[in-house]
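Escalated from tier 1: 3,4-dihydroxyphenylalanine holo job.
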Amino acid sequence: MLDQLNQMHAAALSELANVDTDEALSDWYAQTIGRKGEVTLLLRRVGELPKEERPAFGRRANEVKVSLEAAYEETARQIKAAELEKQLRYGALDVTLPGRWIPTGRLHPTTQTLREIYAIFAEMGFQVYLSPDVETDENNFQLLNMPPHHPARDMWDTFYTDQEGVILRTHTSPGQIHAMREFCPEPIRVILPGMCYRYEQISVRADIQFQQVEGLAVGHNITLADLKGTMAEFARRLFGAERKMRFRSSHFPFTEPSVEVDMDCILCRGDGCAVCKYAGWLEIAGAGMVHPVVLRNGGYDPDVFSGFAFGMGPARSTMLRHSITDIRHFWANDLRFLEQF
Ligand code: DAH
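Tier 2 regenerated the structure:
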């Protein structure tokens, strides 16, 4: 029986070495040292031995039991550790891991440019003035010196609503009327940012919606020199202190005289390249001295007051700064584009 016990001990230990799940372990326990396990049953048979063999068998029996119980505990511990390891690896909650990154989004590239533009003009004393996207034909055209059927309206075809005379604004210029009528007879220095809409053939250079920033200064003794200084200061702050400016005469119905504001190309510095279409110059704004008719429509006496105005597109500036070649990217809502800024 003692030999049998020693064999059982050895066999049980070698079986245990292959046990690696909880179920296999409880099976092993039941078969060996459980209530009906073979080791337990063998130990009960101690009475069958001759009296003088019983103490030696009893001692060995105890050793075997203690050894198997210890081996059982150790295997149980290993299985538990392996299980935990597995759970961690397959993504069960581990509170000691660092948190997951939550994407926070970012400002649209033209919004970033807009905010820089606001900051530059704020330092020159211009406040931001908001006016509506949905406008009347009167504000968008007539009060800006473009009566119905004025040929200049061809430059600004728009979207119409089913309400007679209500349209989407084609430029931020009607904001000049709102600002003048609100502030008259005080002097004014405002910029008017916002979305504009045009009935356009969509291309790399033109979209049916785009932002503009309008500027308006009204006061005593405001001259074209003030306009030139303001535009030059603005361009140098946004595009670099070395910028050169050029003012070309032009025509807008709401300014007299009217100019196009150019700066030397930021890429080739005037030598000529694809970005400036080999002109060496980039157009950054339309501008001019506020037309006497427009001043009067805003409530100001043109014999006492004068003013300058300008209008520019922050999308164009953003394109220049980041070498973006297609204006359609701005409203295509493609994260691959937007996440670059
Ligand atoms: N409103 C013009 C446009 O959308 C831009 C413009 C030109 C605005 C001259 C002005 C200005 O205020 O004086 O093309």
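Residues 171, 173, 214, 252, 255, 286-288, 309-311 surround 3,4-dihydroxyphenylalanine (CB under 6 Å).
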